[in-house]
């Protein structure tokens, strides 16, 4: 493939993560289209990376600690590319990641979303990757999508300028990319999925850490739904089975109060049925996980429901 001679910027926000950042920058420096890339590290306060690490970037942008949304905005505004790609410092892009993103953007997309290719060897990490694989299967059904995660994202600079970029009232790495995606989709921009644009990652390493992450997802989801209430019904990223599980998990607590074996058994059948799509993906890609999938889905559903309740009763309008 021939990449246009125009510069493509890659922005990586960084906060006290020199080790991860170094591995990310090493991967970016061996991209198949490295000669066309401008690598921008946007420092979100904290410790400055060692000089040898900073030297692996073409541009380093300094800023105080305000969260990844602000760091990404500072990064793309200081960059010079007509196309702007984003990944996270704890991600390792495959050698052709940038090339695959550019292909989709050059095909007429205004924004593009890539994928996680792997997430670690621990059971919870492998289960989390199966969850992502289920989402990717859903996304692959759509010609245009409404969700782009910044671990593997790309935008036309003109679109970032018109939309204003990321909403900096999201102080944590949670749902600031969803907010931008929904804004772009509502304004008629074309968002597409690039299954071949891959980055590897280290997913949460313990069940407790995974629960806390999903709790946060549910919590910040409520801020999004206040702005975009129509997304409560449908989007291109969330499997229907996951929505069903979020409802079923708290329902079990009510059924246990009545202690009726018939109702509890019926609940169990419904819940197992809701996990079938995830089980099928686990069977085809990591079959040893199949017996654990229902437990994983229940753990995830409880975390998301708890987070949603937190977001309902406590407003997230003020930065923390």
Structural features, described:
By secondary structure, this protein is α/β, with parallel strands linked by helices. It has a domain at 8-205: Spore Coat Polysaccharide Biosynthesis Protein SpsA, Chain A (Alpha-Beta Complex), CATH 3.90.550.10. It has helices at 18-28, 51-54, 68-78, 97-106, 123-139, 157-163, 176-186, 207-227, 240-258, 261-274, 276-285, 293-313, and strands at residues 8-14, 37-43, 59-61, 83-87, 91-93, 111-118, 152-156, 191-201. It has an eight-stranded mixed β-sheet, with helices on both faces. Strand 2, helix 2 (51-54) and strand 3 form a beta-alpha-beta unit. It is globular. Residues 1-5 have low confidence and may be disordered.
CATH architecture group name of one domain? Alpha-Beta Complex
What is the terminal-to-terminal distance?
46 Å
- For the secondary structure, the number of strands is 8
The strands making up the biggest β-sheet line up spatially as 3-2-1-4-7-6-8-5
Shape: globular
- H and E string: EHEHEHEEHEHEHHEHHHHH
For this structure, what is the CATH class of one domain?
Alpha Beta
